[in-house]
């Protein structure tokens, strides 16, 4: 057994001990706590000694395009998020477009960090074609998650949703176990609905046209504007942050957010908070062994 806080401390040190390393480590450990190991410390398989750091935003630009193909993706996204926070405070709004990004996990921890800093965060990630457009039969875009976070404390809202009802990891797991898929989420090579994972050629968008257009929005931002679409080195990611306080006294956005939450929950809605890491979270011995193996390799003790 290992406390999540201890796991974060150890992993952060192995990643360099910087604030970005702590954010990246927290995001990875959080995924394991939430039962999503595919997005957790298993992503350290992508880490290699000597991976290049993301260039610092030394000139404090409001918008940047960066190639992350030689970076450890979770650390690159964390670094970009922290740089973005500082730029948004200076300019009121800032954005970064990353390309060549290999798997980095969930978007929620990064936009949530932006919200905790008193800003609004918006992020999306495109990927290899695996989802058909609404009414179509061939894969055109990735599962293309979109995330947004705003507010602090009990009013904070964090939304992190993919454009499809399943992920590529879900399909791989179903293929490995022979498990049948739910109806209405996938198509075979002939464009017909299938529940057999081995036959899946394309996923269907979540909620039909709504999920399809959500995925298209992400593709336009991260794939087209950000330059990620078709990049053989990895996926495209965009992160945007803006400071509502830049409006000064003209906009009491915190009161408006609290009012929206009250109306939403009074109407029977669930106020999404995007996961999070309980201070007392503990992971089992199997996780501790996996973490130890990764850290031994990263620090050279596994040679």
Characterise this structure.
By secondary structure, this protein is of the alpha+beta class. It has a domain at 56-164 and 205-279: Malate/L-lactate/L-sulpholactate dehydrogenase, NADPH binding domain (Ribosomal Protein S8, Chain: A, domain 1). Helices cover 36% and strands 16% of the residues. The strands form 3 sheets. A 6-stranded mixed β-sheet has the order 2-3-9-4-5-6, with helices on both faces. It has a two-stranded antiparallel sheet with strand order 1-10. It is globular and about 55 Å long.
- Helices and strands, in order, run as EHHEHEHEEEHEEHEHEH
Write down how many β-strands occur, each being a DSSP E stretch of 2 or more residues: 10
Q: How would you state the average pLDDT, rounded? A: 91
What is the chains' assembly state? single chain
Low-confidence stretches: none
User: What best-fitting shape do the alpha-carbon axes yield?
Assistant: globular
Q: CATH topology of the domain at 56-164 and 205-279, anyone?
A: Ribosomal Protein S8, Chain: A, domain 1
**Distance linking N and C termini:** 25 Å
Main sheet makeup = 6 strands, mixed
Beta-strand content bin: 15-25%
What structural category do the secondary elements indicate?
A: alpha+beta
**Cα Rg:** 20 Å
**Count of helical segments?**
8
């Amino acid at each position: 057994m290992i406390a999540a806080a201890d796991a974060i401390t150890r992993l952060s040190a192995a990643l360099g001990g910087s604030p970005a390393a702590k954010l990246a480590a927290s995001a990875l450990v959080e995924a394991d706590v939430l039962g999503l190991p595919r997005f957790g410390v298993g992503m350290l398989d992508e880490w290699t000694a000597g991976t290049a750091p993301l260039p610092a935003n030394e000139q404090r630009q409001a918008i940047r395009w960066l190639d992350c193909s030689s970076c450890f993706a979770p650390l690159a996204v964390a670094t970009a998020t922290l740089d973005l926070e500082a730029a948004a405070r200076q300019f009121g709004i800032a954005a970064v477009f990353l390309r060549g990004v290999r798997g980095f996990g969930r978007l929620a921890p990064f936009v949530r960090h932006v919200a905790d800093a008193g800003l609004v965060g918006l992020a999306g990630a495109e990927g290899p074609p695996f989802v058909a457009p609404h009414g179509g039969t061939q894969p055109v875009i990735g599962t293309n998650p979109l995330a947004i976070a705003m507010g602090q404390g009990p009013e904070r809202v964090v939304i992190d949703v993919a454009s499809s009802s399943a992920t590529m990891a879900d399909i791989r797991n179903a293929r490995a176990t022979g498990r049948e898929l739910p109806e209405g989420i996938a198509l075979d090579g002939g464009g017909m609905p299938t529940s057999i994972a081995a036959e899946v050629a394309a996923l269907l968008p979540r909620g039909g046209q709504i999920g399809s257009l959500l995925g298209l929005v992400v593709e336009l931002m991260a794939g087209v504007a950000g330059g990620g679409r078709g990049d053989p080195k990895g996926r495209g990611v965009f992160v945007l942050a803006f400071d509502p306080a830049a409006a000064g006294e003209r906009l009491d956005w915190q009161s408006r957010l609290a009012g929206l939450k009250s109306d939403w929950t009074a109407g029977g809605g669930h106020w999404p908070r995007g996961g999070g890491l309980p201070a007392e979270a503990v992971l089992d011995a199997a996780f501790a062994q996996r973490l130890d193996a990764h850290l031994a390799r990263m620090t050279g003790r596994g040679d």
